User: Which sequence fits this backbone?
């Protein structure tokens, strides 16, 4: 090699980002470029003359670890070439710092273990909702394997419980806020409907561009069933007395804080004992179920119907004055009075109505609505009576 | 019959390190079949950094033949058994 060419090659080697070591046939370092000094954390004079040794490593995985005194352990990929320099055989080693890549791979391995070990289902989609990854719990919950879902959009999990507008709204919230949380009913592969508690989060690149949506969900069907059982009357499927009292207390707190008012309707089947005695308890039960269902159909969103006891029902009407409550009560009375019940006699109900008074304890409110109901019975049944605001003793009391 | 002493230096549990251990055990078994007595010691330099400095370890995994002389070292996952044996000067026996 002539002198100018050697100068050029030397400067190329010295500026290379990859580390270069030249070894003599015994494995001693004859030359180390500046990148090699960085990689080993040693000045060239400490490297030259050191015994690096031979290299025996497979082609595809040729990673070595270097105890760098300044940086700690660094990982490097290594490649070897036999060359001849000035007529002497020697070995060139090319080393590239892959510490970051190795660390990244280790982190990914950790995440992969967690991904498949957690009990929540995970689904990753592209921005146009094509599925790119699901975990083991996804398969356990939905019944679909990864191969069956990759590349598809998750619409096959939808049940008829929610309409297209419901999903459009989720899409709009995601676009606007980057996340969505909620409960929804989904369909497993075997057709069974399950209740899912779902969080969706947008995954963005550093520059803000949306790259994925991450869905994390739990099957809460059994939790929901337990909660439902604890709060509902098994015969009529409306709320039970315990759940009603909880909601009532909540509503009283809300009314106290925001100064609103609410109303209660308490109603009772007229002559129910005659139904039970004349037609049997099975028919009596069916009448209770039908009456609860008819009353429920006359309620507005947010009203809450509960079975209070035997043939007694209670309705909580949030943000409703007694006059509006009276209209609701009248609708219920009329609906029940005009409806033929299959295999059972027509029945009527009597209703008491009471509006909340600021500062009144809930026991007192219930006493007033109970008294109004009693008065409706006394006045001839099949009617509703609004309790006066100041509690007056009922006739005969 | 020769008494062979090999020391394998590693830096923590990595895929490469595990492969090097497996390869060295196979190589040792091959040597034992030929009637040599082989002593293999595995040392983690993260646990014993002073040893790494004393031995002037530049890169791991590295196997050093302490006995018989001459001292030889081979870097890598040791997957090429032939090269390891030649490099450690153990081919002849």
Assistant:
């Amino acid at each position: 090699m002539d002198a100018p060419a050697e100068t050029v090659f030397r400067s190329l080697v010295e500026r290379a980002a990859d580390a270069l070591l030249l070894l003599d046939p015994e494995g001693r370092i004859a030359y180390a470029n500046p990148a090699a000094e960085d990689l080993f954390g040693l000045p060239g004079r400490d490297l030259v003359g050191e015994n690096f040794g031979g290299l025996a490593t497979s082609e595809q995985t040729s990673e070595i670890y270097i105890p760098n005194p300044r940086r700690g352990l660094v990982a490097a990929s290594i490649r070897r070439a036999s060359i001849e320099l000035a007529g002497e055989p020697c070995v060139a080693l090319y080393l590239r710092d892959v510490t970051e890549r190795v660390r990244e791979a280790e982190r990914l391995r950790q995440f992969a273990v967690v991904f498949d070990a957690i009990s929540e289902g995970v689904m990753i989609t592209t921005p146009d909702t094509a599925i790119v990854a699901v975990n083991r719990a996804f398969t356990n919950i939905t019944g679909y394997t990864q191969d069956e879902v990759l590349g598809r959009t998750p619409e096959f999990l939808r049940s008829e419980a929610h309409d297209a507008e419901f999903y459009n709204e989720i899409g709009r919230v995601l676009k606007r806020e980057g996340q969505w949380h909620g409960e929804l009913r989904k369909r497993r592969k075997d057709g069974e409907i399950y209740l899912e508690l779902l969080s969706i989060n947008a995954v963005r690149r550093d520059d803000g561009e949306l790259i994925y949506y991450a869905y994390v969900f739990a099957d809460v069907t059994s939790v929901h069933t337990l909660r439902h059982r604890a709060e509902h009357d098994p015969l009529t499927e409306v709320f039970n007395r315990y759940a009603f009292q909880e909601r009532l207390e909540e509503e009283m707190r809300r009314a106290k804080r925001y100064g609103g008012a609410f109303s209660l309707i308490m109603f009772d089947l007229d002559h129910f004992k005659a139904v039970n005695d004349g037609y049997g308890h099975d028919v009596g039960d069916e009448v209770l179920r039908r009456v609860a269902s008819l009353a429920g159909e006359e309620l507005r969103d947010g009203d809450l119907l509960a079975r209070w006891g035997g043939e007694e029902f209670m309705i909580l009407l949030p943000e409703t004055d007694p006059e509006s409550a009276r209209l609701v009560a009248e609708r219920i009375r009329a609906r029940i009075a005009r409806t033929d019940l299959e295999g059972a006699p027509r029945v009527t109900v009597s209703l008491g109505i009471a509006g909340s008074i600021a500062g009144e304890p809930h026991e007192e409110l219930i006493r007033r609505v109970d008294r109004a109901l009693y008065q409706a019975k006394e006045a001839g049944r099949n009617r509703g009576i609004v309790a006066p605001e100041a509690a007056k003793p009922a006739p005969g009391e | 019959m020769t008494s062979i002493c090999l020391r394998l230096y590693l830096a923590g549990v990595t895929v490469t390190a595990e492969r090097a251990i497996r390869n060295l055990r196979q190589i040792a078994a091959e040597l034992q079949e030929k009637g040599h007595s082989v002593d293999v010691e595995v040392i983690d330099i993260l646990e014993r950094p002073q040893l790494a400095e004393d031995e002037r370890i530049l890169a791991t995994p590295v196997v050093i033949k302490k006995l018989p002389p001459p001292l030889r070292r081979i870097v890598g996952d040791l997957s090429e058994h032939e090269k390891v044996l030649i490099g450690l000067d153990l081919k002849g026996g």
Observations:
- The first strand of chain A starts at residue 19 and ends at 23.
- The mean pLDDT of chain A is 91.
- Chain A has 13 helices and 16 strands.
